[in-house]
Amino acid sequence: MKLPACxxxxxxKCLLLxxxxxxxxxxxxxxxxxxxxxxxxxxxxxxxxxxxxxxACHGLTLNGGLGSPLTAAALAGKPGDSLVATLLDGRPGSxxxxxxxxxxxxxxxxxxxQLQQGVTP
Length: 121
Hints:
Residues 1-31 form the signal peptide. By secondary structure, the protein is mainly alpha-helical. Helices cover 61% and strands 0% of the residues.
């Protein structure tokens, strides 16, 4: 049985949509797994920075203070790349300073991922 032209077009569009969704999911998983943990000594340094320096404004338990909370719940749904940009470049006109002089972009990505997963210093 031959399908009408409108059904064939719809089937082709559904197949294309499914392929695009699979590619998007694969890329998202790959991008997340591409974040590499720093060396153990640097991890300790970054955790110290988070606890002492970030904690000074965001609260020692990261539940907020002068700065907003940095808990997994507070960061849920926020794009990681935007959070990394804020961490590295600060927020002009606010108390949030740029931390780019103190960490690489890869380290900032790792730190944001830790916070989004609820790992505390």
